[in-house]
């Protein structure tokens, strides 16, 4: 059994296609297939069911692959220790971030991070939570920035800050006359929501104690963008709920449409998330420190009193 064979094994599991796995490993398909066959013969088990398309691991193969990921990660940590000592913080950092966070958080820290660590090449993808978690497990991402807790034992969560929910109300909305709002006072028929698949939608429904089939009675429009929801409220009617960072830079006329919740304010926990056997430890620690340093003071100092969970 060799490290190369284990890496080929993981590539096939990740891409579920021998030709694609061989391409990603920079070898020919016959070479990759031959090495995997040798590995299976040595172990005396069939790791992949080749009769299915796409190829799938067998039940025993799933356990073999899980242990192979641990073994390969531990070996790479040795290389990483030497590399950091020799070159400092450098290399590629692949970040996944949820869409309700990306446009408001990334601009706060990314410029200074790049200036401070010019040898780091950053790739950022906006993805929903489930996709980020899956890509972390397959080592297609190094770190995720998303809302927790996830209750996944294969994932390590490092809370960064607690962000308040706020209401964004059309001036004609009945609640716009109040200085603060409560979840109980929100009419579901007046509430604009994100599409299914966004954790923020799930939290809003849970916060308002509403059924999943909540709809606006005048227009059925669900968006994948918080900015679109803002525009609908501004030009139509009703209200939406937004995360605090998304209203930080609003002009004065739009700020007047924002209403905080009464204390204790509902919060969402924003965390840096990695796989339990994650690599690039020093680079990810540097990312964490840079994010926290650039947060508005109120978010850095807030304590979690009422965190809205994700269903």
TrEMBL record:
<dbReference type="GO" id="GO:0005829">
    <property type="term" value="C:cytosol"/>
</dbReference>
<feature type="domain" description="HTH lysR-type">
    <location>
        <begin position="1"/>
        <end position="58"/>
    </location>
</feature>
<dbReference type="InterPro" id="IPR000847">
    <property type="entry name" value="LysR_HTH_N"/>
</dbReference>
<keyword id="KW-0238">DNA-binding</keyword>
<dbReference type="GO" id="GO:0003677">
    <property type="term" value="F:DNA binding"/>
</dbReference>
<dbReference type="GO" id="GO:0003700">
    <property type="term" value="F:DNA-binding transcription factor activity"/>
</dbReference>
<comment type="similarity">
    <text>Belongs to the LysR transcriptional regulatory family.</text>
</comment>
<dbReference type="Pfam" id="PF00126">
    <property type="entry name" value="HTH_1"/>
</dbReference>
<dbReference type="InterPro" id="IPR050950">
    <property type="entry name" value="HTH-type_LysR_regulators"/>
</dbReference>
<dbReference type="InterPro" id="IPR036390">
    <property type="entry name" value="WH_DNA-bd_sf"/>
</dbReference>
<dbReference type="Pfam" id="PF03466">
    <property type="entry name" value="LysR_substrate"/>
</dbReference>
<dbReference type="InterPro" id="IPR036388">
    <property type="entry name" value="WH-like_DNA-bd_sf"/>
</dbReference>
<dbReference type="InterPro" id="IPR005119">
    <property type="entry name" value="LysR_subst-bd"/>
</dbReference>
<keyword id="KW-0804">Transcription</keyword>
<protein>
    <submittedName>
        <fullName>Hydrogen peroxide-inducible genes activator</fullName>
    </submittedName>
</protein>
<keyword id="KW-0805">Transcription regulation</keyword>
